[in-house]
Known about the structure:
By secondary structure, this protein is an alpha+beta fold. The chain has a domain at 47-119: Winged helix-like DNA-binding domain superfamily/Winged helix DNA-binding domain (Arc Repressor Mutant, subunit A, Orthogonal Bundle). The chain is built from 5 helices and 3 strands; from the N terminus they run ααβααββα. The chain has a 3-stranded antiparallel sheet with strand order 1-3-2. β2 (92-97) and β3 (100-105) form a beta hairpin. The N and C termini lie far apart (53 Å).
Amino acid sequence: xxSSRTGSELPLVAGGDACAPAGLxxxxxxxxxxDLARTLKALADPARLRLLSLxxxxxxxxxxxxxxxxxxxxxxxxxxxxxxxxxxxxxLRRDKRGVWAHYSLVPGAMRAVGAELPGVGxxxxx
Length: 126
């Protein structure tokens, strides 16, 4: 495609057809957006989402690593790694008992993340 126009020859738009800054404000700050992106990255893994759902569905509200390896079909070190990521992100609480670690959901953690994004908070139920 051959065009005789250059970037400096764009047509002028008059009147109400021009785009004007809307003065948007109230969104996430750059720093908060970066923090939230790191938090959401912890959830952006199918194994971690399954892990959270298994713990949430547990009758006791907690699960041992040894209880999670079978349903996830992952090795103990891999499940431990995923749990550590979720602990560091604030979604799980770790309780060491002997050689095993037991994990439970941090109450309200998912809801707090949803509240950061207008319109998404209502979709989060855990």
